[in-house]
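USER: Study each token:
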Amino acid sequence: MANKIKDFVIEQRELLAEQAGRLRTEPVKAARAATAKSAERIKALNPRIRAVSRSGVKLTAISQATAERLIQLQEQLVTSALTDAATQLERAARADNVKDLVTDQAAVLRATRERIVSDITEAVTILKGAGDDVRKVATHTYQSVTGKAAQSAPKAKTARRKAKRAVRKTPARKK
């Protein structure tokens, strides 16, 4: 019986020594594995960071081109407004009577209205084009960074207006 106890103690001591040896070597292995995994993750970020940087450059180019087009449009607006004002003054100077002056002013106002609508349409077209370009860059960047295709947003439902009904007031009761 004493031999069995001695054998059991020796066996347990060997197991404990083996476990202690594993505990000494495994933390180093775990730390090495974690370090290697961290290095891989950092390397995997490089293409994503490049994609975001490229998109920043593209967005800067879009904003500069849009600003340039808007400044050119503004130049055209100012030039045409000054030309219209000069033309209006010339017509007023050449008018023989008040009727001709009023008729010319009405024509100038119609032309001015059309010019303003055209200018606003051009400005909206410029901004819409810039918005489309920004959306394309954002979609491409999202796909590059996540590796997923961007989901298209559901189209917003247009709210239907209910026709207003005339509310009939009830006559006041006589007491």
